[in-house]
Amino acid sequence: MKRKSHGLAFFLIVMIFGVQTMFAQTRNLMPVPQQVEWQKGKVRVDSSFTVQVKGHPHPRLYKAVGRMIHRLAGRSGLFLPQSFFDPQETICHPNLLVTVKRPAAIQLNEDESYTLTVANSQIQLQAETDLGAMHGLETLLQLLSADTEGYYFPQVKINDAPRFPWRGLLIDACRHFMPMEVIKRNLDGMAAVKLNVLHWHLSEDQGFRVECKTYPRLHQLGSDGNYYTQEQIKEIIAYAADRGIRVIPEFDLPGHATSWLVGYPELASAPGPYKIERNWGVFNPTFNPTIEATYTFLDGFFKEMAALFPDAYIHIGGDENNGKQWNANPQIQLFMKTHHLEDNHALQSYFNNRLLKILTKYGKKMVGWDEILHKDMPTNIVIQSWRGRDSMIKAAQQGYQTILSNGYYIDLIQPTDYHYLNDPAPQDLPVTPDQRSLILGGEATMWAEMVSPETVDSRIWPRTAAIAERLWSAGEVRDVDDMYRRLETVSFHLEELGLTHEKNYDMLLRRLTGNRNISALKTLVDVIEPVRIYNRNRLRKQFAYTPLTRVVDAARPDAAVARKFRKQVDNYVAAKNSNLELEEQIRLQLQLWADNDGNLQPIIDVSPVLFEIRQLSQNLSAVARIGLEALTYRKNPKVRPSNWAQKSLVILEQAAKPQAQTNLMIVSAVKKLAGVGEN
Amino acid sequence: MKRKSHGLAFFLIVMIFGVQTMFAQTRNLMPVPQQVEWQKGKVRVDSSFTVQVKGHPHPRLYKAVGRMIHRLAGRSGLFLPQSFFDPQETICHPNLLVTVKRPAAIQLNEDESYTLTVANSQIQLQAETDLGAMHGLETLLQLLSADTEGYYFPQVKINDAPRFPWRGLLIDACRHFMPMEVIKRNLDGMAAVKLNVLHWHLSEDQGFRVECKTYPRLHQLGSDGNYYTQEQIKEIIAYAADRGIRVIPEFDLPGHATSWLVGYPELASAPGPYKIERNWGVFNPTFNPTIEATYTFLDGFFKEMAALFPDAYIHIGGDENNGKQWNANPQIQLFMKTHHLEDNHALQSYFNNRLLKILTKYGKKMVGWDEILHKDMPTNIVIQSWRGRDSMIKAAQQGYQTILSNGYYIDLIQPTDYHYLNDPAPQDLPVTPDQRSLILGGEATMWAEMVSPETVDSRIWPRTAAIAERLWSAGEVRDVDDMYRRLETVSFHLEELGLTHEKNYDMLLRRLTGNRNISALKTLVDVIEPVRIYNRNRLRKQFAYTPLTRVVDAARPDAAVARKFRKQVDNYVAAKNSNLELEEQIRLQLQLWADNDGNLQPIIDVSPVLFEIRQLSQNLSAVARIGLEALTYRKNPKVRPSNWAQKSLVILEQAAKPQAQTNLMIVSAVKKLAGVGEN
User: Fold this and answer.
1) What ipTM does the predicted assembly reach?
2) What is the three-class DSSP state of A564?
3) How many CA atoms lie within 13 A of B275 on its CB side?
4) Mean pLDDT over residues B198-218, rounded?
5) Which among A181, A507, A545 is the nearest to B503, CB-wise?
6) Domain B35-160 has CATH 2.50.20.20
7) Which residues in chain A touch residue B505, judged by CB atoms under 8 angstroms apart?
8) Structural domain boundaries of chain B?
9) DSSP assignment, residue A635?
10) Chain B environment of A70 (Cβ under 8 Å)
11) Cβ neighbours of residue B601 closer than 8 Å, sequence gap 6 or more
């Protein structure tokens, strides 16, 4: 694949169109293409819309065209017969002509570029491979617009290719099992934002999720019955390949291994028996790297898995081996001495090297978390950086290919812009050009301790669309406000793929209220977020059986209502109270919140699952009342009581503390309005 | 299974508690059990809640207990470790003790009875088989209640068993393919309301949906790639069996057969080639019943399918053979003459008898639509009545077992009470007791011309819960208002099984408005229904590729807001305008509608898919304005202009006509208020 930086081209376009707003540049496109030349004119779409494919694509493209037409029909209500796309059908003057030179291989560094020209005569989509063509179809769908006359595509010339070749989403199907439809709908979402790697985390302390014919006790005893059959694995791989997505399985070794050892305790570094783990954290059970039985077992295991998973890469985990079982086992200690292995890290590298031989034997390359970086390892492995950017830089400097996940941990409930601005390879990175080329891309990581099939989409989407843009678009594309504007549209369009991030919100609120009126609860939950990082488990110990149906689960990352309010307050304060329209909007919003507790408490009274948010609800209204007072006092400081700031600060500080494992996300803005405390 | 009528017992209980409301009797139970004795007292549920299973159930029960605990946790937010249910675990004093005598076979007439006693000392669930126990677990979940102190089960004694042994839902996976998760979540919904047969319609003019290894062109050429692999079929059968549900496949023969003949045109009654049908209706392609090749083919086919589907019954369709190909084929006409087959019906019976021999050879019994009823057929087949109740009665009178679907055609968008009051075997049925016992039950039929995976749940649920009650509960349980009250609760609880009938409504409205504010559109769509029976296709020709994302698709059967309004108006008129509180509610509702068009038209202006509802939106507001005027004139007839009634009637009659293939469901109520026209 040609991997030139298109940053300069984009920059030039921004210069040329500099007088226009970002909207005029980016419209609803996400990821932003490398080169966009908007032109005047609209190409109308009606029920006579037709498509033809020419050239030599992989047949997956025909299915993709059918899906695109189906979605176009779904949005527009137009009856489009080509929803059943027949590549044999002769279309004399197709409205959309797709031309592809050759079939793509679903592998790293395949050509994904395309050009798309929307002109009155014809819409032309051209690509080297069907992968590029599929990306172009997604771009075309994002261009669909409407006015009082009907639907149309704006005239435009787009020239596009990804900045990084490895753009992934990790889905942890172990901490909570993720049924087939969860994986499938998220693959559709990935394709819509041009991600191309599903990193499928398939073994953990809490579950082993693949049918293994060689060692059937793995799935029989290690999964609670929740595993993918090999037929299902093949189904997912085919589904992903149809969407241009590679599937990389992760089998986490030698730690995070409890579920393997339930059925095969003789491979552990301490005597069993072992039970599937029901807690969250880092646990002791670890493979014994000093006995040959381990490698015989792993040889048989990876022989089977190498045949099942076609991608060239297999992920072996390698993270968070706490070494306790190794330290406590005299035989292992003796082995280390005999083999001159100075510490556990060296022992793990010994293990990894043995594993690498096995993978190599079966034609696979190794990927692992940054703990596998060690002087004893050859540089033909890929390092996935999670503990810090440093390990990515270090890996590249030492000649390893590397991918970045640090900063893309979407399970940690951080806001979208935090992830968005996390560039794997900014200009000032301390690496040579050669080292820079070793940075393959990145992966968002959906670790699943705190998500169920009902909530997982709301943790992945829409934030992952912004990460997808970071990995696809030029590094210069980093206007946060414009990203948030486009994200709203993208998020809504992702719903047509079956994703539940939006629609399960009301459903969870209905369940919480026993199907009573949800409006008051929604007003509250709209402005709270689950506590960030790993604090949820710290504030209240969580288990594998914790129901993920509580207020903290309905609450969503980067709460949009609160974010918009904070922005309004920023603007209002920056304008020195002069924007009266904005003031009125802020006042109305605060008034709604101030009144909300009175509406919500009667619902809480008869919904025991809501008892835990009594204080939280009171806090929202108390904070809002301070905000209303602050609006008054900003205009008329004289009427402000002398102890008001002090009293308010106490309430605000109290309200800033987590309640029911959530944070109230408007406190900083009200502090700012009130001119008290740190914001 | 013991099939005594529990009607008398229920009647006695109604007598005993006669002074109380229906609510006190039925609470949130659906289907209403045969015997319920409510008692005073509450059994509290907290995180110490435990379950033990004793006796000899099929292991499926352990999974069912785990699912029940998981749902209990999900509703209550309680951390219940037994979500991972381990039958080996010793519980000293379980809160719920389940005792089962023997494992059930998943077959017709298996014992499904249970008794459930909620007492302070312990909750006891006892059943002959795990099927009864699973029904009891669903009943227990429906009992879960809450007050200001927390969650509890009310003390009660329940003795329950189904009235009919065959309680089914037909899902047509052919007209639109229904992916695995659609089938699975609907199986969960079925189990929640104690249905026990999935009738899976697997072949049609528009698609052949099962992988066939003997004749692979069936699925390869007849399905557009949308078919179930045999592994997936097995997965569904196992999933259903885990929920006590039989799976009966339907392979529709000899008509409705286009998709078979695409790959095997030599078996048709007229020369091919054939293409998968994209229109809706009754089509000509029909198997040739006069050539041995047909029976050789069907022998090989049913040999394979008989092994794949374990149930004793296979459905062979048999409906709507229009006979055109037979009439036009001289060789077939000669065959009929030679074999003294007087008409096409006799020829079809010849075919059916040949088919019956094949099914019998492979250990299967035959079910078919009522067209297969013919003097030449033996009585060991089951007749499914769809064209009218008469065929059910006739079948029973002639000694056939029979099931009723006439009156349960949920694809025809009729209101819930219509289906609910449709009793397969009312007291006055002209049959002997022996003949009565041949009536096995009934099936709701989800024909799929006009539903997609996105909308199908909203056509099945919640109405099918009322049909489930008809087939389970005593015939005397027929209070429509109480049914509707309970249906709201049941419908909401069905969401926890992943069903989308509620949550996809807003999603479709978001798509229709391009994610603009949906409130005005919702106000309109809340009071419209898709046109009933087969009128949608008559008003605008529909195709297999018609997007099912338009207003008519978002609109739902038995529109609850309109139904409640009609009821309010009925009550108001019956009370002769004296109920002022009701009058105020009606006025507020009418005012909202009267103002709605002004809010909705700006949305329509920029949403071309909504252009078709411009008139509909105007109609709602016009009708509401007449309603407001009517309220005034009812109180003060003197101010009513002389030509008002006549003018209003013109508007109302106009508004009663379908728009965008939907009906405005408040017109009759406003006519009633206005005292004009027929209501």
Assistant:
1) 0.96
2) helix
3) 4
4) 98
5) A507
6) no
7) none
8) 35-160, 503-674
9) H
10) 545, 547
11) B614, B617
